[in-house]
């Protein structure tokens, strides 16, 4: 791909190509073809700056109808007057308008390109080496998105291309100075590019619009996690806990630095402020240490990350633990009661310190909770120190609660993993199907009657059989059985004698969430156990054992 | 799914909460609790007491416990002083509107008496007198004011005062219950006050049975308006000759917007129906505009209100008051320095208009000043305390003083006298002997500053008020004026605004001038006449006034010759003592003449005289301001009094949790300064911004995932994400599939709790991206 002899516009054209290429890498494989086409034809084409636009248009259309992409690019008339137009004010408009789109195209690559331009590398060799090193080294993001079996050869090609482009533009800049118009075009391009880079860094929202309002970006592949081996929650937790902590030493230093703040925190709490800690990382360890650092104060640690922690339990624990009373009345009344207790003179406990882990926990996010908590926190003899993880924590408090809380904000970026906190959450990745563990099922069944077990066994045997019959992997959902079919089967095997008892068993199963059901397209109920066949087999074996006992 | 029996206590979590009780140390704890409630008396014997409450030993841990104690008390005392002075000035600010409200309540039914005669004809005409109190947008600030209003109204003894708050009034039932309870409770108060009340028995019947919602006498629910009405009528029976009993029930609704409109609608309707039996007065606190009322309530309800609008505090004027109280009039306490003041000022004006948040920032500043500055023991004290404080100063304190920038400047100023400099730097005793002068100097500066500042304020006000088209000055609020004073490095005296005022001063006519001079003099007399340092200024101002009178008199004399004995008046003025000048001038004020400064030269001689006078007045003020309105940084040891740590305030109060988290995830290396993920190791010339983008397999898993996340569109395929993650991890060598998966799940769960992604059902195994900005 030599460049020296070419006319001006070609490099411009060529610049576009790597940019598309960036997109190609990010986007799925089919886009590759477009790239190839452009690649081969760009030599003989006499493009104008409109190419950029047309190519983009083409891409948009191509998303709708990918087969016609080839034609569209070149069927756009190459209008020489467009050059002038692009230089005018019209240019800016279209540019701004398009920038959202552009945002996506510009990648790491573009920035490196700009760097090269800026540094104006003298010799081609140097540039090649530079680019090559840069591109290969510092584009891990892209690497990661490439389809694993993609060869490195293409990357190399890109580099060549890019570097050609760069030098080409430089060379042309010098050689064809007289053609002012065209140089202007280049200038515009360049400023645009610089602008684009700025946009990239500054305007995340541009990206937002690009992602939401262009048809192209919504594409993702159709891979699903079912390709992976199944994983049990317990296993998961064990594996996570057994992992070595990265940067343990450094994290220790960070934690120590934060611990140095304890006395300051304590003084600030005494002076009537409440403290809230934000920042990335689990803050539980540090807050626990703070709570236990002193032995002369009353501290109540509240584990907000536990799903069962609610306003009700918090108030109950305070009233039972410190007022020695039983809670009654509405939440507001209880709150009032607590505040009155801590403002009377002759009370047993002078000051109460609340250490509240994860005040932003999902189950706490109600207006009432923060209203009551803020009233408690505004009581001069109750102090609150809380931690939060969510990035939009500010939205949880309105003006009134903010002023009652009287927060001081501390950034506590501990980088510690949220091991404990997340052990209470069922990861939504382990979606509802794998939530159920065979042990749980076994546990439930062992406490049920022989007949109920029979019904369950019939169901899972059906599921196992269905799964084995099928040629491909079936989801548990697809191996389910119709309500009536199951009822018939169970009756035949004398597990149930009437519809009522059958229903009763099913209700029991449902209550323990060991079976699930959905309405099929025919309007009948389909019942299934949300486990894969292997596990079902395991359960069936255990049921046999149970039956023998 | 709790984890039990793990590594240590931190990992065993089984309950929602966990109590830690103090270790029993019997003899100490009761004393301490006493101490906490009343810490200004006596000293704590425990030498580590102040460290235990969180104070740190400053001066490299060499600070004495006494000094720490003083810092702690210094904070408590200073803050309570500031708080009370602010509260006082806010009440003064609102006293006029308070009076309005009280008089409205008092007169609410006297004017309606005529209307009630209409009711005799059977007109369905029942209006509730209602005051709409426009409070300004900051509802948290208003709580104090409404309590004060309620207090004032209760003092009047002619009203029952009920405060309804939206948090207690979720439904009509609760609202009515609140109303009844409060009225009956306040009634009991009245009874306790007057022991000779006869009908105590009657009221006993009406007391509530707390356990169930019924009255003791049975048939009525405790939230029935009938209860209130019956009771009220009972109280006001003609045979009840106790005139002192309240006649009206005043209902204060503090946060109108926060109420459920339907509740209020019903409530007001019921009130209006009972209005012929019970005299209600409604006070509605509205934070926004009257539109809120009109939109919330239907016209049928609005018709039953007889509305009067009232304006409560303007929070900007409150700020002005606060600034005056804290920064200007307070001569010895803590003040905000240049940048912190700017920060607070801007947050107030540009963000929230919230006085309470301003105060809490101010409190933090004061607290931190005492917390972190060992020299703060010299702040906020009067003359009597100074010697004892000075005796406490250790060598380290003196060293700290020598380290202060302003002290260094002071030393530099002494440079020609090398002996002096050496003594300042080396002789502790000498420095100690000098300190009272320096500390007094700060106080002196503030005194003069506050006078000059008020003077400037008066000039500005009179210039604005004189409404002469020639005069062109901006009206600046007090806090903005102070902003100028503290922001301009040259001080307020060199500020453009001041210079403009002085230029405009040369254009005013004689009546304005005499007005202005009188006001200035009044101010001087009222506040600082006794102060000897201002004697010269006072006499000069008096002199100006006399000359102005003279000129006026001459003018009159010349204009109507032989008519009046003007010379006698002028002589009397000049002969009288300065105190009487004001009064005598006020008397002679009936002469209405106006001079204008001379523009064309051919006018009479009196006008020329007047122009000269104006010029001199302007010059006088210029020099006066130049000497007294200097910037505070010119004062030696101003660090003792001025708080300068703006960054900390910003960290504490203006936070960006999202940006912080994004930074931590995107650039973990800024926090974890490790070598393994340091880009600088590989390549020196790489520019920083670029290398931030790079992903190292040694980084935290969540950071790796986050960086990939940034490149995704609005939907994220989990499988692809996982594969990408795996490919990164595998750069360091092969890795167990299960481990990858576990780390991936842990990382994504973290991102999910942080709020970056959420699961979506739109496509199988996809997550939705939630943030875009970087």
TrEMBL record, chain A:
Biased composition, class Basic residues, residue ranges: 35-44
Comp. bias regions, Acidic residues: 151-163
GO biological process: DNA replication
UniProt-annotated stretches for the region Disordered: 35-94, 141-181
Annotated Gene Ontology cellular component terms: nuclear origin of replication recognition complex
Localisation per UniProt entry: Nucleus
Domain Origin recognition complex subunit 2 RecA-like: 254-411
UniProt entry keywords in alphabetical sequence: DNA replication, Nucleus
GO molecular function: DNA replication origin binding
InterPro entries registered for this protein in UniProt: ORC2 (IPR007220), RecA-like_ORC2 (IPR056772), WHD_ORC2 (IPR056773)
Annotated signal sequence range: none
Chain intervals with Low complexity compositional bias: 64-73
Keyword Nucleus in annotation: yes
Keyword Nucleus among record annotations: yes
Main location: nucleus
Pfam families tied to this protein: RecA-like_ORC2 (PF04084), WHD_ORC2 (PF24882)
Residue ranges occupied by any Origin recognition complex subunit 2 winged-helix domain in the UniProt entry: 476-534
Domain of life: Eukaryota
PANTHER family reported in the protein's UniProt record: ORIGIN RECOGNITION COMPLEX SUBUNIT 2 (PTHR14052:SF0)
Subunit structure, as described in the record: Component of the origin recognition complex (ORC).
Functional summary from the UniProt entry: Component of the origin recognition complex (ORC) that binds origins of replication. DNA-binding is ATP-dependent. ORC is required to assemble the pre-replication complex necessary to initiate DNA replication.
Family of the protein in this entry: Belongs to the ORC2 family.
Protein name: Origin recognition complex subunit 2
Source species: Ambispora gerdemannii
Lineage: Eukaryota, Fungi, Fungi incertae sedis, Mucoromycota, Glomeromycotina
From TrEMBL, chain B:
Superkingdom of the source species: Eukaryota
A GO CC annotation given for this chain: DNA replication preinitiation complex
Annotated Origin recognition complex subunit 3 insertion domain residues: 392-645
Region (Disordered) residue spans: 1-46
Record keywords: DNA replication, DNA-binding, Nucleus, Phosphoprotein
Naturally occurring in which organism (per UniProt): Ambispora gerdemannii
MF (Gene Ontology): DNA replication origin binding
Segments forming domain Origin recognition complex subunit 3 N-terminal: 11-378
Complexes and interactors: Component of ORC, a complex composed of at least 6 subunits: ORC1, ORC2, ORC3, ORC4, ORC5 and ORC6. ORC is regulated in a cell-cycle dependent manner. It is sequentially assembled at the exit from anaphase of mitosis and disassembled as cells enter S phase.
InterPro entries assigned: ORC3, ORC3_ins, ORC3_N, ORC_WH_C
Subcellular compartments: Nucleus
Keyword Secreted: no
Protein name: Origin recognition complex subunit 3
């Amino acid at each position: 791909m030599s460049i020296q002899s070419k006319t001006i516009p070609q490099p411009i054209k060529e610049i576009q190509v790597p940019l598309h290429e960036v997109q190609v890498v990010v986007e799925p494989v089919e886009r590759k073809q477009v790239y190839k086409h452009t690649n081969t034809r760009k030599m003989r084409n006499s493009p104008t700056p409109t190419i950029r636009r047309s190519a983009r248009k083409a891409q948009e259309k191509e998303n709708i109808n990918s087969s016609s992409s080839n034609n569209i690019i070149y069927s756009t008339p190459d209008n020489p007057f467009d050059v002038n137009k692009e230089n005018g004010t019209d240019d800016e408009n279209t540019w701004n308008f398009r920038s959202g789109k552009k945002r996506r195209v510009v990648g790491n690559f573009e920035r490196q390109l700009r760097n090269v331009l800026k540094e104006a590398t003298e010799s081609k060799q140097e540039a090649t080496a530079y680019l090559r090193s840069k591109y290969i080294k510092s584009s891990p993001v892209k690497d990661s998105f490439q389809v694993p079996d993609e060869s490195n050869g293409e990357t190399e090609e890109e580099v060549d291309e890019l570097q050609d482009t760069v030098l080409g533009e430089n060379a042309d800049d010098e050689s064809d100075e007289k053609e002012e118009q065209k140089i202007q075009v280049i200038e515009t391009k360049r400023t645009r590019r610089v602008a684009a880079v700025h946009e990239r860094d500054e305007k995340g929202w541009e990206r937002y619009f690009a992602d939401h309002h262009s048809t192209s970006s919504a594409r993702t592949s159709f891979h699903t996690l079912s390709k992976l081996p199944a994983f049990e929650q317990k296993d998961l937790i064990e594996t996570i806990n057994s992992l070595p902590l990265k940067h343990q030493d450094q994290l220790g230093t960070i934690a120590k630095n934060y611990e140095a703040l304890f006395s300051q925190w304590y003084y600030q709490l005494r002076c009537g402020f409440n403290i809230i800690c934000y920042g990335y990382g689990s803050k539980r360890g540090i807050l626990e240490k703070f709570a236990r650092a002193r032995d002369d104060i009353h501290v109540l640690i509240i584990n907000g990350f536990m799903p069962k922690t609610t306003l009700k339990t918090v108030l109950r624990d305070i009233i039972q633990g410190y007022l020695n009373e039983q809670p009654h009345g509405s939440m507001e009344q209880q709150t009032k009661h607590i505040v009155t207790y801590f403002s009377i003179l002759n009370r047993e406990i002078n000051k109460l310190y609340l250490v509240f882990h994860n005040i932003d926990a999902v189950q706490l996010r109600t207006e009432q909770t923060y209203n009551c908590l803020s009233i408690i926190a505004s009581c001069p003899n109750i102090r609150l120190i809380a931690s939060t993880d969510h990035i939009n924590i500010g939205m949880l408090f309105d003006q009134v609660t903010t002023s009652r809380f009287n927060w001081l904000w501390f950034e506590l970026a501990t980088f510690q993993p949220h091991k404990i906190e997340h052990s209470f959450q069922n990861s939504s990745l382990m979606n509802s199907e794998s939530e159920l563990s065979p042990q749980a099922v076994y546990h439930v069944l062992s406490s049920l009657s022989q007949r109920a077990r029979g019904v369950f066994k019939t169901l899972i045997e059906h599921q196992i059989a269905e799964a084995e019959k099928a040629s491909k992997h079936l989801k548990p959902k697809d191996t389910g059985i119709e309500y009536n079919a199951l009822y018939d089967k169970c009756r035949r095997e004398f597990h149930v004698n009437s519809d009522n008892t059958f229903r009763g068993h099913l209700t029991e199963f449902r209550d323990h969430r060991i079976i699930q059901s959905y309405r099929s397209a025919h309007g009948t109920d389909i019942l299934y156990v949300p486990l894969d066949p292997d596990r079902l087999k395991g359960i069936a074996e255990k049921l046999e054992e149970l039956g023998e006992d | 799914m709790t984890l039990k029996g793990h590594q240590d206590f931190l990992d065993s979590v089984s309950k929602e909460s966990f109590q830690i009780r103090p270790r029993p140390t019997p003899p100490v704890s009761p004393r301490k609790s006493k101490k906490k409630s009343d810490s200004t008396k006596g000293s704590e014997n425990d030498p580590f007491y102040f460290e235990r409450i969180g104070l740190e030993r400053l001066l490299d841990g060499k600070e004495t416990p006494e000094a720490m104690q003083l810092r702690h008390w210094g904070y408590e005392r200073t803050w309570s002083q500031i708080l009370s002075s602010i509260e006082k000035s806010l009440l003064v600010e609102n006293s006029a509107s308070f009076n309005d409200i009280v008089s409205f309540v008092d007169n609410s039914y006297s004017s309606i008496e005529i209307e009630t005669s209409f009711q005799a004809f059977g007109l369905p005409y029942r209006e509730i007198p209602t005051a709409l109190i426009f409070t300004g947008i900051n509802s948290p600030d208003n709580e104090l004011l409404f309590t004060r209003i309620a207090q004032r109204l209760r003092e009047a003894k002619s009203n029952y005062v009920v405060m309804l708050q939206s948090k207690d009034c979720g439904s009509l039932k609760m609202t009515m219950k609140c109303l009844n309870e409060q009225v009956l409770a306040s009634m009991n108060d009245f009874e306790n006050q007057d022991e000779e009340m006869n009908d105590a028995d009657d009221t006993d019947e009406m007391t509530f049975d707390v356990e169930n919602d019924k009255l003791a006498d049975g048939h009525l629910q405790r939230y029935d308006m009938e209860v209130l009405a019956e009771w009220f009528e009972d109280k006001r029976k003609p045979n009840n000759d106790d005139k002192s009993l309240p006649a009206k029930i005043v209902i204060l609704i503090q946060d109108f917007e926060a109420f459920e409109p339907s509740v209020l609608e019903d409530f007001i309707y019921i009130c209006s129906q009972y209005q012929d039996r019970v005299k209600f007065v409604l006070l509605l606190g509205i934070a926004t505009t009257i539109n809120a009322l009109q939109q919330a309530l239907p016209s049928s309800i609005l018709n039953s209100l007889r509305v009067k609008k009232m304006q409560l505090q303007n929070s900007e004027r409150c700020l002005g008051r606060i600034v005056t109280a804290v920064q200007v009039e307070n001569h010895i306490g803590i003040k905000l320095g240049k940048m912190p003041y700017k920060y607070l000022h801007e947050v107030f004006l540009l963000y929230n208009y919230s006085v309470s948040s301003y105060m809490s920032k101010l409190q933090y500043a004061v607290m931190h000043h005492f917390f972190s500055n060992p020299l703060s023991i010299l702040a906020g004290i009067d003359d009597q305390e100074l010697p004892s404080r000075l005796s406490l100063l250790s060598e380290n304190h003196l060293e700290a003083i020598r380290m202060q920038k302003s002290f260094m400047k002071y030393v530099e100023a002494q440079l020609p006298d090398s002996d002096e400099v050496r003594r300042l730097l080396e002789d502790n005793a000498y420095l100690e002997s000098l300190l009272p002068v320096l500390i007094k100097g700060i106080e002196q500066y503030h005194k003069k500053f506050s006078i000059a500042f008020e003077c400037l304020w008066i000039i500005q006000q009179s210039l604005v008020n004189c409404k002469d088209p020639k005069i062109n000055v901006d009206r600046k609020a007090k806090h903005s004026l102070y902003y100028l004073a503290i922001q301009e490095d040259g001080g307020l005296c060199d500020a453009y605004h001041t210079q403009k005022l002085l230029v405009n001063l040369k254009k005013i006519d004689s009546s304005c001038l005499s007005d202005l001079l009188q006001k200035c003099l009044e101010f001087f007399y009222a506040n600082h006449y006794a102060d000897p340092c201002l004697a010269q200024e006072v006499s000069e101002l008096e002199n100006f006034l006399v000359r102005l009178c003279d000129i006026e008199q001459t003018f009159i004399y010349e204009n109507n010759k032989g008519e009046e004995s003007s010379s006698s008046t002028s002589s009397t003025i000049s002969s009288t003592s300065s105190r009487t000048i004001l009064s005598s001038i006020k008397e002679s004020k009936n002469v209405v003449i106006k001079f204008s400064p001379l523009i064309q030269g051919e006018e009479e001689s009196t006008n020329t005289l007047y122009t000269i006078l104006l010029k001199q007045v302007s010059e006088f003020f210029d020099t006066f301001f130049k000497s007294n309105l200097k910037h505070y940084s010119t004062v030696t040891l101003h660090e003792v009094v001025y708080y300068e740590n703006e960054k900390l305030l910003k960290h504490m109060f203006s936070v960006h949790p999202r940006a912080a988290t994004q930074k931590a995830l995107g650039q973990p290396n800024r926090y974890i300064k490790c070598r393994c993920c340091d880009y600088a190791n590989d390549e020196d010339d790489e520019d920083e911004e670029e290398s931030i983008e790079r992903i190292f397999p040694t980084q935290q898993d969540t950071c790796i995932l986050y960086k990939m996340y940034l490149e995704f569109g609005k939907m994220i395929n989990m499988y692809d994400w996982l594969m990408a993650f795996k490919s990164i991890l595998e750069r360091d060598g092969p890795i167990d599939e299960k481990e990858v998966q576990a780390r991936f799940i842990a990382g994504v769960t973290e991102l999910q709790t942080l709020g970056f992604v959420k699961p979506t059902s739109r496509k199988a195994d996809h997550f939705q991206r939630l943030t875009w900005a970087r």
